[in-house]
Each structure stands twice: as structure tokens, then as C-alpha cells.
Amino acid sequence: MSILKVNLLPRDYSYQVEIVDDFLDNVRDYVRQAVKTDQYAIIADENICKIYGAKIKNQIKKGARKVELISFPAGEKSKNWEKVGELARKMIQLGFDRKCCIIALGGGVTGDLAGLVASVFLRGVALIQIPTSLLAMVDSSIGGKTGVDVLEGKNLMGTFYQPRKVITNISFLDTLPESEFLNGLAEVVKHSVIWDRSHFLNIAGNARQILKRDPIILKKIITKTIQIKAEIVMKDEQEARLRRILNFGHTFGHAIEAQSKYKLLHGQAVAMGMHFACRLAEEFGFSETEKIIRLLKQFKLPVCPDKNYDHGRLLKKMYNDKKSVRGKIYFVLPKKIGEVFFAEVDECNLREHLRSFQETCGI
Ligand SMILES: NC(=O)c1ccc[n+]([C@@H]2O[C@H](COP(=O)([O-])OP(=O)(O)OC[C@H]3O[C@@H](n4cnc5c(N)ncnc54)[C@H](O)[C@@H]3O)[C@@H](O)[C@H]2O)c1
Questions:
Q1: How far apart, in Å, are the Cα atoms of 281 and each of 28, 131, 248, 325?
Q2: Predicted local distance difference test score (pLDDT) of residue 262
Q3: How many angstroms does the Cα of residue 294 sit away from the middle of ligand 1?
Q4: Residue 115 near ligand 1, beta carbon < 6 Å
Q5: Within 10 A of 282 (CB to CB), how many other CB atoms are there?
Q6: Measured CA angle at 281 (ends 210, 145), to 5 deg
Q7: At 90, is the pLDDT very low, low, confident or very high (cuts 50, 70, 90)?
Q8: Cβ(205) to ligand 1 under 6 A?
Q9: CA triplet 223, 227, 233: central angle to 5 degrees?
Q10: Which residues on neighbouring strands pair with residue 148, listed in sequence order?
Q11: Is 310 helix (H, G, I), strand (E, B) or coil?
């Protein structure tokens, strides 16, 4: 077992990300070591409930007074205020009180949704994150961002709410569908581009084994990616500045994801967003776009939209995105692989870049 300690220094507590191999055999011990209580509410989407729900619930049940599995329909469409209210009300009806602990068992949607419920239920209860998708393991379970989508855009409502522990077990990936695995690889690539050139080279050099889900290589790559995310979050928990580099690829990515009515997976949209940002960075002298594109394509991620989206609506989405500050859009752009910078791009240049990106993509 490896343990990564994530110390969030700005606050007077810290928590650990534990990467464990034997989770499914020792669920109860891991959960109780993280939060000792006699009431656990496991929040999971319907897919995860079907595969893991009963096994995990039955194990935690031994010795606990109340353990309930609360499910919701899988997918981004569940990440909304109504669902937060429904889940919180369900918890009240089931008799959970302030001493309870919420276990967010699932992908990023579950983590964001259940995390938000934990932060508002009876003004905040203990939370354990147990990520089951690759994206959730390397990204969304770390750093305490919770959130839901509204009509105007993605993740526009939410809280910073740190879990007591993140328990990561790579064997959950055995049941993750291929498209979702590739989706998570987009965030793995993103972390390497923004922070660590040697990690990028390592990923590129092991791309075939990664695609085959070689457990030894995967564990190394996932652990390194978690370390990168943790390091960034530790330096800037509340996204004052540095943490914003995690938004690389997300400004265009979120806009296109919303315009596709969430038919595109988050990672697919981020892959296109990274391509969009790389091309924009070329205007500032960046010259490594092709290396990034090659790796994304190797991971079967789309780097171009399949059709031409309405530029006016894309721009509006980008301005509504929480990454814009006082009406200005700051893009996270690569200087070189492993290092990024912030660039303010005005509307006129952005329109022009949308046009040239469309030409590059041949649509
Ligand atoms: N909070 C943050 O810091 C942060 C960071 C990045 C992304 N996000 C959010 O994360 C979300 C995307 O996360 P996601 O890609 O994990 O989506 P998801 O939670 O919808 O999971 C994707 C699909 O995979 C299934 N699944 C997950 N684990 C599985 C497993 N082990 N076996 C079988 N099926 C499994 C789920 O049921 C779902 O159908 C987006 O809403 C995004 O905004 C949040």
C-alpha cells in the first residue's frame, strides 16, 4: 500500500490520499480508519451500485448502526441542484444526523455531487471520497472542489469541501468501460503538460502498456498524477491563482462540452480544449503542439470537433465560464511541455482563433 499525504496547509487540517491494493477485501477497516461513526451514507450512481454497492455496503455494515446505499441515475445530467436537494432530503428521511459520514463512491459526477451534499447537509458532515473512474482517481477526488451544473454552464455552483480521506483502489478500473478509461487519460496528459515534462515523456513512452491497462505501469502513472494534483492544490487550495493552471484545456473544453449537450465526454472535450489552447500558444512561440496531439490521438481522444459549432454561442459559454475574470478570459497556455503561463485573450483575437482552429481541423 502506498500513502500520499495531502497537507492542505492554509487550513488547520490535512488528509491523506491512500492508494491501496486490497480495498475490496478490507472495506470496513479502511472506511472506519478514515471516519469512525455508526452511520454511513454511501452515495453512488446506479452503475456503481449494481457492480459494487451490495458488496461494499455489506462489509461496512458489520458493526455500524446505519449503512444506506443511496443511488442516482449515472451521468452528467444528474449533476444539478435538484439532485443535491433530493439526495439531502433522502438522507433526512433515512434518519441520518450530523455525526454521519457520506461516502462518495464513483466517478467525478458522484464525487462532485456527493461532496456538495456533504458540505451542505446539516451544515456539513464528514466525507470520504472513493474514486472509481480514472478521471476521479487522478483529478476530481483530490482538492475538495464540489459542484453542479446550471443551464448557463458547467460547475458554476459549488463549494470547496475537503474529504477526510481519499481511498484509491486501482482495481476498480477493471470494470471501467474503455471510453471512460480513455476519458480519464485526457486528464492524465493534462497534468503532465502543465507540470512535469518527464511525466509526459514517461506517459508517451508507455502509451501502449497504459492502453492495455498494465497494472504496474498504471499504478505508477496514476500515483505520479495524483502527486502533481496534490502538489498544486496544496500550494493554492482556494484557486487564488496557481490552481487555475489545472484549467488547461477547460475553457474551450467546457464550452464545446456544453454545446454538444454533454454527448461529448469531459475528457474528450478537454482533449479538444488542449489542442485549441496549444494552437493559441503557438502565437506566443510554443512549438510542441504535435507531440501533445500525437499522444492524445494514441489514446484515441478526439482533438477536433466533428462539426463546426456556433462561434457566438461558444464565445458566450467561454465568457460565462468561471474561468473568466471581470469579463476577460485568461487562457492557460503551454510555454513548453511541463510549464504553462496565463494569457489574456480579447474577444476579437478569440473570434479569429476560433476561425483558424476550424480551418486547422478542416471543418
Ligand atoms: N471536482 C473536481 O476537481 C473535478 C475535476 C475534474 C472533473 N470533474 C468532474 O468530473 C466529472 C466527470 O467524471 P467522470 O468522467 O468520472 O464521470 P462519471 O462520474 O459520470 O463516470 C463516468 C461513467 O463511468 C461509470 N463508472 C465509473 N467508475 C466505474 C467503474 N469502476 N466501473 C464501471 N463503471 C464505472 C459511471 O457509472 C459513469 O457511467 C465531470 O462532471 C467533471 O466536471 C471535477
A1: 48, 33, 11, 20
A2: 83
A3: 25
A4: no
A5: 13
A6: 60
A7: very high
A8: no
A9: 145
A10: 157
A11: coil
Q: Which of 47, 170, 256 to mutate to test the pocket of ligand 1 (most atoms within 8 A of CB)?
A: 47
Closest CA to 97 of 117, 115, 122, 114: 122
Measured distance CA(90)–CA(87) in Å, rounded: 5
Q: How confident is the model over 175-194, as pLDDT tens digits?
A: 999 999 999 999 999 999 99
- Grid coordinates in use for 28? 470496513
Mutation test residue for ligand 1: of 49, 71, 78, 109, the one with most atoms within 8 Å of CB:
109
What atom in ligand 1 is closest to the CA of residue 75? 20
C-alpha dist (Å) from residue 158 to 111, 192, 285: 12, 26, 36
Distance CA 282, CA 293 (A): 13
Give residue 323's pLDDT. 61
pLDDT of residue 196: 98
As a whole number, the mean pLDDT across the chain is 93
Q: What is the pLDDT of residues 284-315, one digit of tens each?
A: 999 999 999 999 999 999 999 988 888 999 99
Question: Do residues 132 and 179 make contact, with C-beta atoms less than 8 angstroms apart?
Answer: no
